[in-house]
Amino acid sequence: MSPETVPKLARGMKLREDKARAQWVVLGPERMFVPDEIALEIIRLLDGSRSLAAIADELASRYAAPREEILADITSLLDDLAAKGVVTA
Amino acid sequence: MTAPPLALLAELTHRCPLRCPYCSNPTALTRPGEELDTATWSRLFVEAAELGCLQIHLSGGEPTARRDILDLVRAASEAGLYTNLITSGVLLNGTRLDALAAAGLDHVQLSVQDAEPASADRIGGYRGGHAKKLDFARLVTAAGLPLTLNAVVHRQNLDRLPAMIDLALALGAGRLEVAHVQYYGWALANRDALMPTRTQLDAATAAVEAARIAHRGRLVIDYVVPDYYATRPKSCMGGWGQRFLAVSPAGRILPCHAAESLPGFDFPDARTTTLRAAWEASEAFNRFRGTGWMPAPCQGCARAEQDWGGCRCQAFALTGDAAATDPACALSPHHALLAEALDASDRAGEGFTYREPARLPPALPVPPLG
Ligand code: SF4
Ligand code: SF4
Q1: Best mutation site among B11, B66, B88, B123 for ligand 1, i.e. most ligand atoms within 8 A of its Cβ?
Q2: Three-state SS string across chain A, please?
Q3: B1-369: which CATH number, 3.20.20.70, 3.30.70.1150, 1.10.3470.10, 3.40.50.2000?
């Protein structure tokens, strides 16, 4: 994925709160993915219009952290989620 | 405390226009008049979500044979469950499917009987069914819904597995479930006509492995080697009463959809028992939980908490004892039964006993014309 990519949850994938186990999960057909805190924050920002660059801007201002580092981190995380079929470009 | 279940299988009805000879419904089919009503199902969906279920599989029979299917999908979705419809696809048109999608349906799982139309229609016992399924699959993807194709495989269609993989790709399915027939109920009655040969099985396994590589990122293929050719059993349902519960059309709350045929059980009645009470406190759910109930050779076996001694329904179907080690395990004293069944199927023909209601309802008097 590049900074211009607009990632979104893959078709059939839904983010849901799992109250019984006090966690959030991404559900798909016959599968379930439990994101860690950072992945969850990023998944929540996938609205189908924000690009990777925009997500990095958002997180950089939220945490007053270096933007380029954040962009590199979320790119590798989203590449990983794409390989697992959780998100698509 | 018992960990909560992840998924509910709601068998809404045993009615189905198809007659598959391996149908997983019990041989004693429930009549329409005995089915749970809309309000009871809706209450169960809320209870399932509160208990911790994340997914619901609306199944049957053919779930869309229920006239209230739209209300049931809406109820499941509003309860917060990821809602999957397991269907033969022959009863729905585009308008009804769009309505289901609008009601919150998340995913469709469509069964196909073969890749070759004449054979598919013969196996399903329903003329024209295959063509309807293909039309339906196109409607599903056009509605923007994710599609899984479910192919139940056996001796009479396994040679065409590569064509079924191509079909899944052509129809735009994201996932293909290749399920070998499980031999209890109707399928046990048809075992000799359905059992694949070793040669077929090896070719199928190779075809799946090649397709997984060739279509990575495009098609996920779920495939498990069948019990009769295995030396260790599968972990059935992730363990009895551990991840999964099912409710039958008449409202029996079960640890697995096939369990209703096991004798000596008093399965909780959903009309009078909550899902939570059934899950946490019923004798039926507790009986085969954990490892304490296990006989030798499971007792103390290193795999006891991996496969949980295999399938209780298969153990009963083959040995008459639901608490026995699954004969699919080579350590079971009954393991030779599987080899004998393979032998018998070698010499058998291809005729089916189709799934039919045991007793048809009495014929209605036909009023005279005019
Ligand atoms: S297996 Fe065949 S007969 Fe049984 S419910 Fe499914 S489509 Fe109907
Ligand atoms: S003996 Fe029992 S626990 Fe051990 S592998 Fe066989 S079925 Fe599984």
Answers
A1: B88
A2: CCCCCCCEECCCCEEEEEHHHCEEEEEECCEEECCCHHHHHHHHCCCCCCCHHHHHHHHHHHHCCCHHHHHHHHHHHHHHHHHCCCEEC
A3: 3.20.20.70
